[in-house]
Amino acid sequence: MSQPIWGIDLGGTKIEGVILPSLGDPKPIVRTRVDTEAHLGYDHIVGQIALLVDNMKQQSGLFPSTIGFGTPGVLDPILRTMKNCNSTQLNGKPLQDDIENALGIPVKLANDANCFALAETHWGVVKHQFPEARMVFGIIMGTGVGGGIVHEGKVWNGKHGIAGEWGHIHLDDSGGPCYCGRTGCVETILSGPSLQRYYKQSSGKDKTLKEIVAQAAAGNEAAARLTIDRLNHFFGRAVSIITNLLDPDVIIVGGGVGNIDSIYSEGVRSLQYYIFNNRLDVPVTKPMLGDSAGVFGAAALVAS
């Protein structure tokens, strides 16, 4: 009989945990959370993780032998410290070692985009619509832009731990400076804040992304239409890089920007134009799991 699988999604404002009966049964035994309280520092975050695990033990009467963690950055496989975290308190810290010392059990870490792709593979859109898929690329386009690779049902991390870091491929200098220190990264063009910034430069007005999308759909504002047209154009260019390199069986687009419907029509036509092939067969699809993907994917880390 298989043991329940435990996963924790480490976010900037909350830390969420889930216990699932098995990889074949995703109905939660326990699903709960605590506040991250990151402003109190790194040691406090580790303490909050331990508090969450204690709560999960008490609620379930179960004890984990290992736990999967979704993180907002990656663990350097050589230095064993965290890097590229937007929760900056984690950068440079030996998070895996410190969690293992706090909990007394081994843990497995992967970034949130990898967990998203893994969850959608095992329980979401891949399982239900593309069960034959062997190579899955998961995209998150929201406040930032990231990506994750799942091959044969397992996360592919790469030599440096950065496999799938699609958001920091150079796309076009018009995106301007990126927080990573470079210019024109995918994230500077396709993230939600970048789209809003481009709209403001074109119109002189501040609007939310939802408002910009609505104005573009209504067709009564040139700056909004220009912003969405630019998104679709560069989406195709950017995803063509991934398609040419990995040639995945399915591409899943998550995050707030991924809710923009024109990506799946005009954006896909742009992708068809830019890939090095005479047609486009790979499906580009929305996810199914919503907010559950991160924590469920973390649990899948220890079963896959």
Concise description?
The protein is of the alpha/beta class and 304 residues long. It has ten helices and twelve strands.
Using the 3D structure, state the CATH architecture of the largest domain. 2-Layer Sandwich
Structural class: alpha/beta
Low-confidence stretches: none
For the record, what CATH class of the largest domain applies? Answer: Alpha Beta
Give the strand tally: 12
Basic shape:
globular
Order of helices and strands: EEEHEEEHEHHEEEHHHHEHEH
Distance between the termini: 16 Å
Q: Spatial order of the strands in the main sheet?
A: 3-2-1-4-7
Q: What percent of residues adopt helix (DSSP H or I)?
A: 25-40%
At CATH level 3, the topology of the largest domain is: Nucleotidyltransferase, domain 5
Overall pLDDT: 96
Count of discrete alpha- or pi-helical segments spanning 4 or more residues:
10
> Mind summarizing the main beta sheet?
5 strands, mixed
Please give the radius of gyration in angstroms. 20 Å
In CATH, the homologous superfamily of the largest domain goes by the name ATPase, nucleotide binding domain
Supply the number of structural domains.
Answer: 2
Strand content: 15-25%
What does this structure look like?
This protein is an alpha/beta fold and 304 residues long. The protein has 2 domains: 5-117 and 292-301, Nucleotidyltransferase, domain 5; 131-287, ATPase, nucleotide binding domain (Nucleotidyltransferase, domain 5), CATH 3.30.420. Helices cover 37% and strands 18% of the residues. The protein contains 10 helices and 12 strands. Strands 3-2-1-4-7 form a 5-stranded mixed β-sheet. The longest helix is centred in the last third of the chain and has 25 residues, at 222-246. The mean pLDDT is 96.
